[in-house]
């Protein structure tokens, strides 16, 4: 399914678990693992000095990617190592597109202070801009692969459907259970939210969304499918509760493109999940309006 996987790294302790998981996925898919280090030349301290400072960053980066490649090689995974200069998030996005990788794997935390390359802010910007699916791994996650239980939250939008397509293919490949969840956010229904007619109407729409998603998953070859509709005051909280209660291994969720990340309900939910989910979050970008 994945033939090329990108792992951007700064070599910090926060990246070790994510690297191990990237290697696990690459080994299972017989994929090439691209290990990328970005020498951040956009910082004033670097831009003003250049020369020896940039050389030192690149030398350090070479050590970082070589060490990661050695760990991958020990598992029999083929690697490509690269050190580039530039703005970290943009360089990562451009590399993923240019090398036609199928998946980017990133931690949500990296180094702190002036030496940071892959902090959460960079990861979130990659999530927002990458045309390639991005698998984010938080500091509390302890991921294993292959996945046995995948969760795809859905509201029936194009944004959610993009995630469903990838999630269903991955579940079918790994013979995993695909959990489909639609959450009715009661706080968005107004003052009379408890009125039965309103709740029934929104529940019906949510049920239609998971039923349609179930049909897509079945057509993709998924044998084990669970469909749920829940009512909560917070979509983000409902998803996290479902993750905990059903031992979910990964959440596959859609996000709008550059101009719409925070415009739509699932956009803000995705951002919260990337920051706080106890399991990996696989984000799949929906094309922005000008690309549709």
Question: Can you characterise this structure?
Answer:
The protein has helices spanning about 15-30, 45, 50-75, 90-100, 120-130, 160-175, 195-220, 235-245, 265-275; strands spanning about 5-10, 30-40, 80-85, 105, 135, 150-155, 175-185, 225-230, 250-255, 280-285. With about 290 residues, the chain is an alpha/beta fold. Helix 4 (about 90-100) packs across helix 5 (about 120-130) and helix 6 (about 160-175) crosses helix 7 (about 195-220). The radius of gyration is 20 Å and the shape is elongated.
- The first-to-last residue Cα distance is 25 Å
- β content, as a range? 15-25%
Structural class call reads: alpha/beta
According to CATH, the fold-level topology of the largest domain is Rossmann fold
Could you tell me the mean pLDDT?
85
CATH homology group of the largest domain: HUPs
How would you sum up the global shape? elongated
Order of helices and strands: EHEHHEHEHEEHEHEHEHE
Number of domains: 2
The value of Rg in angstroms is 20 Å
**Largest sheet composition:** 10 strands, mixed
Which CATH class of the largest domain applies here?
A: Alpha Beta
Q: What is the share of helical residues?
A: 40-55%
Task: Please count the beta strands (DSSP E, at least 2 residues each).
Answer: 10
Strands of the widest sheet, in order across it, are 3-2-1-4-5-10-9-6-7-8
Instruction: Tell me which CATH architecture of the largest domain applies here.
Output: 3-Layer(aba) Sandwich
> What ranges have pLDDT less than 50 throughout 5 or more consecutive residues?
110-119, 257-265
Instruction: Note the total helix count.
Output: 9
């Amino acid at each position: 399914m994945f033939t090329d996987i990108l792992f951007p790294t700064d070599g910090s302790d926060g990246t070790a678990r994510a690297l191990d998981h990237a290697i696990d996925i690459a080994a299972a898919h017989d994929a090439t693992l691209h290990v990328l280090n970005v020498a951040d030349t956009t910082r004033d301290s670097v831009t003003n000095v250049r020369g020896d400072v940039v050389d030192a960053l690149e030398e350090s980066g070479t050590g970082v990617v070589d060490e990661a490649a050695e760990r991958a090689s020990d598992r029999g995974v083929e690697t490509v190592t690269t050190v580039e200069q530039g703005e970290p998030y943009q360089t990562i996005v451009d590399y993923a597109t240019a090398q036609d990788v199928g998946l980017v794997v990133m931690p949500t935390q990296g180094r702190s202070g002036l030496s940071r390359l892959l902090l959460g802010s960079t990861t979130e910007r990659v999530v927002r801009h990458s045309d390639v699916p991005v698998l984010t791994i938080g500091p509390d996650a302890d991921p294993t692969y292959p996945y046995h239980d995948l969760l795809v939250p859905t509201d029936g939008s194009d944004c959610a459907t993009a995630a469903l397509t990838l999630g269903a293919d991955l579940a079918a490949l790994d013979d995993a259970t695909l959990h489909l969840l639609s959450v009715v956010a009661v706080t968005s229904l107004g003052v009379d939210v408890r009125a039965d007619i309103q709740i029934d109407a929104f529940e019906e729409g949510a049920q239609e969304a998971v039923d349609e998603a179930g049909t897509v998953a079945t057509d993709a070859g998924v044998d084990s499918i669970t469909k749920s509709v829940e009512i909560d005051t917070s979509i983000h909280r409902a998803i996290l509760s479902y993750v905990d209660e059903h031992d979910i291994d990964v959440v596959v969720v859609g996000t709008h493109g550059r101009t719409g990340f925070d415009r739509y309900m699932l956009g803000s939910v995705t951002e919260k999940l990337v920051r706080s989910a106890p399991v990996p979050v696989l984000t799949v970008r929906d094309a922005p309006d000008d690309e549709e």
